[in-house]
Every structure is written in structure tokens, then in C-alpha cells.
Amino acid sequence: MSDRRTALLLSPHLDDAAFSCGGIAAGLAAAGWRVVVATAFTRSVHPATGFALACQRDKGLSDAVDYMALRRGEDGVACERLGAEAVWLDLLEAPHRGYDSAPALFAAPHDDDDVGGALAGAIGGCLERFAPALVLAPQGCGGHVDHLQLCAALLGCGHAGPMGFYRDTPYVIRDPGARPCAQVAGLALSDLVVPLDSEALGRKQSACGAYRSQLGFQFGGVAEASAALASLALGEGGGAGAAERLLVADPAAMLALLG
Questions:
Q1: CA-CA distances (angstroms) from residue 241 to 154, 235, 244?
Q2: Angle 36-34-223 (CA atoms, 0-180°, nearest 5)?
Q3: Is residue 244 scored above 80 in pLDDT?
Q4: What residues are paired with 136 via a beta bridge?
Q5: Can you give the C-alpha Rg of the chain in angstroms?
Q6: Residues 185/156/69/206 CA torsion (nearest 10 deg)
Q7: Residue 227: what pLDDT?
Q8: pLDDT value of position 1
Q9: Which pick of 89, 209, 224, 242 has the fewest CB atoms within 10 Å?
Q10: Which DSSP symbol is given to 95?
């Protein structure tokens, strides 16, 4: 059995963890950690219809494309570039659960959205399977319903080990003052700046470049995404170099864990 420590990164969609904490992931992998990126909402519904199909067309993709299969392929490449393992939890993303417009994605979860139980079960299965020394999950900045559901499901699992909550990107690029969701904001957490060396930042940029179906829509293109992520990292470092930020219970203990 390997004695490597495992970091479990929980990602709502097939890009969130890489965009948000890919530098930390790359740094951990380079330091010998086993890094697992478990993405919740990855199930194919093909052919897509309604708002789900509109989201696909917004990315310049034809109706014939199996959108989630394409994205899983991108995620596999991105995780390989980070030095991570990709795990796909096979749950339906919000446009396939009755959220039928962009505003609906950023409003309160629907009363009849019952994904929470299956999501908690899937996360609990990952916690049991990987026995992580560290769990990273979104803060819920931006308020996307899938991010909120993941936060609630993780916190409902009662995991007692070290956890950090990353700043959801690109939402924090669009709104640098974006706040964590209520579930995370209600915890006793402090801000931690995690420095990134040039190799970790470069690997993050390379990994994020794999999500080609998303980069035009989210950033304007591959080069623009790379520049925006670098600019964000420098801003998060506050003038002391590139960094990513986490909310954690014990900053000193987390820095020691991260090495």
C-alpha cells in the first residue's frame, strides 16, 4: 500500500477545481502527494434538449456533440497535466435537473431538487475510498446552484479531517469581492494565502488550457484564460508573488500540511 498522502479536490463541474486551485493541486502532486479531482456533475444526457442544449450551443458546439463526454475528455487531459487523477461522480448538472435559465442557475436551489442525497453519498464514498489527508471544496462564490449543493453535501457528511475551501473561479475574476455561500460563511474559518511557484502556476495554466470547450465562453480564448489566471494569482498574492487563497480552520496547521 502506498504511504503517499492523498488530497481530494471536490469540483462541481469539469473545470472548477483546475480553474480555482489548480496551482495548489500541481504543487501537491510535485511534492509527492496523490491528488484526486472528483467532479460531481458529469453525466451525459445525449441528445440534450431545452436549456441544456442552449448551454451547449453557447459554447459553439453542434447538437450532435455529446457535451459531457467531450468535457470528460478535456478533464482527463487537464488532470494529467496537473499530475492528478480524474474521478467522475456521474450526477446530472443543473440544466438537466429543472433549472431552465441562466438566472435560475444563480438563484436558490429548487425545493424539488433532490440531488443532495445522491451527492452526499458520492462524496462519502470518495472519503471512504481515498481516506484523504486533505479535502478541498468550493466556497460557493458566485452562487451557482451546483456549487451550493456540493458545499451543503460535503458539510452534511460530517468530515472531520483538514479541509480548505477554494475561491470559485472565474466568478472571483468577474467579482473580486464575491463572498462564500451561507454554509461556508457560517463556519469559523480564516483566509489563507498559499504561495505558488512558477512551475505550479505554469502547470495550472497548461491544465486549464485543456478545457477548450469552455475557454472562449468563460474568458475569450486560450491565451486570454492563461493571462486572466496569471493576473488573478498575482492579485491573490497581494504583491508577494503568485498565490491561491483558501478558507481554513487553522491557517498555521494548513500551511504545515501543505509543506
A1: 31, 8, 10
A2: 60
A3: yes
A4: 9, 164
A5: 17
A6: 40
A7: 98
A8: 40
A9: 224
A10: G
Q: How many helices (H) and strands (E) does the chain have?
A: 12, 7
CA distances to 33, 202, 219 from 27, rounded to whole Å, are: 9, 11, 24
Cell 500540511 appears where? 257
Residue 52: all three cell numbers together: 441544456
List the grid coordinates of 91.
450526477
62: number of Cβ within 10 Å: 7
Nearest to 146, CA basis, from 47, 246, 10, 7: 10
Do residues 244 and 166 make contact, with C-beta atoms less than 8 angstroms apart? yes
- 126: pLDDT confidence band, cut at 50, 70 and 90? very high
Q: Which of 2, 82, 24 is nearest to 255 (CA)?
A: 24
What is the b/e burial string over 173-212, where b = at least 16 CB atoms within 10 angstroms of the residue's CB? beeeebebbebbeeeebeebbbbbeeebbbbbbbbbbbbe
Rounded mean pLDDT, 126-135 = 98
> What is the length of the chain?
259
